[in-house]
Amino acid sequence: MRGGWLSVLKDAAAEVRRAIKPLIGSRESGEVVGLGAGGGFSKYIDIVAERAVVEYVDRSSIPCVLVSEESGVKRIGEGEPEVYLILDSVDGTTNAVRGINFISTSIAASPTDKFNDVEAAVVMRLDDGGVYTAEKGGGAKYNDADIQPSDVRVLNKAVISVELSRSPGNIDRVVPVLKEAKSVRSLGSGALEICHVASGQLDAYVDVRRMIRTTDIAAATLIIKEASGVILKPNGEPLDNVQLTRLERFSLIAAANTELFNQIASLLR
Amino acid sequence: MRGGWLSVLKDAAAEVRRAIKPLIGSRESGEVVGLGAGGGFSKYIDIVAERAVVEYVDRSSIPCVLVSEESGVKRIGEGEPEVYLILDSVDGTTNAVRGINFISTSIAASPTDKFNDVEAAVVMRLDDGGVYTAEKGGGAKYNDADIQPSDVRVLNKAVISVELSRSPGNIDRVVPVLKEAKSVRSLGSGALEICHVASGQLDAYVDVRRMIRTTDIAAATLIIKEASGVILKPNGEPLDNVQLTRLERFSLIAAANTELFNQIASLLR
Question: What single-letter DSSP state applies at residue A21?
Answer without folding.
Answer: G
